[in-house]
Amino acid sequence: MSYLLVKYLVTAAVVVAVSELAKRSDKLGALLASLPLVTVLTLVWLYVEHQPTDKIANHAWYTFWYVVPTLPMFLLFPRLLNQFGFAGALGLFVLGTLVIFAAYAWLMAKAGIDLL
Could you tell me if 94 and 67 are in contact, meaning their C-beta atoms sit under 8 angstroms apart? Predict the structure, then answer.
């Protein structure tokens, strides 16, 4: 139980650090947020928990492919924010990401990479 609590605290600390830094500096906050911190933490937790190396490798592999279709929405979000406010922009961001991901997964399946 204490190990799970440590995982929660360390992971939460990373998220809080990013949001606090973002309040002080747009660029540094974005830089820290863009780093694959959650993925690195997940890889570390999987390793510490003695997961098989193929499971750890698969996590890194699929993370790469799942990040790609999310990137266009980060470019569109500022415009959506100005037009629809935060809640509307966030909803459209999520919906747009799902649509882009579905199309992307379909295209990748044609290339032999099964993402779903």
Answer: no
Residue 32 binned pLDDT confidence (cut-offs 50, 70, 90): confident
Pull the structure tokens for residue 80.
């959506």
Which region holds residue 112: left if phi is over 0, alpha if psi is between -120 and 50, else beta? left
First to last CA, the chain: 32
| CA separation for the pair 89, 72 (Å, rounded) | 14
Give 106's pLDDT tier (boundaries 50, 70, 90): very high
Query: For tokens 């266009």, what's the residue?
Result: 72
Distances (CA, A) of 10 to 14, 17, 28, 113: 6, 11, 20, 33
Average pLDDT over residues 27-39: 85
Strand, helix or coil for residue 113: coil
